[in-house]
Amino acid sequence: MLSPAQAQERCEALVDRARRAGADASDAVYVANASESVQVRLGALEDVERSESEHIGLRVFAGGASASIGSTDLGDAALDELASRAVAMARLAPADKFAGLAPEDLLLRAGVPDLDLDDPTERSPLELRRLAEEAEDAARSVAGVTNSEGAGASAGRGLFALATSHGFAGAYSASSHSLSASVVAGEGSTMQRDYSWHSTRHAADLLAPATIGSEAGTRAVSRLNPGRVKSGQFPVVFDPRVGNSLVGHLLGAMSGASIARRASFLLDRDEQQLFDSAITISDNPHVARGMRSRPFDGEGLPTSPRNFVEGGRITGWLMDTAASRQLGSSPTGHASRGSSGPPHVTASNVVLGPGRQTPAELMADIADGIYVTELIGSGVNGVTGDYSRGASGFRIVNGQIAGAIAEFTVAGNLIDMFASLRAANDLEVYRGIDVPTLRVDGMSIAGD
Question: Is the entire prediction scored with pTM above 0.85?
Answer without folding.
Answer: yes
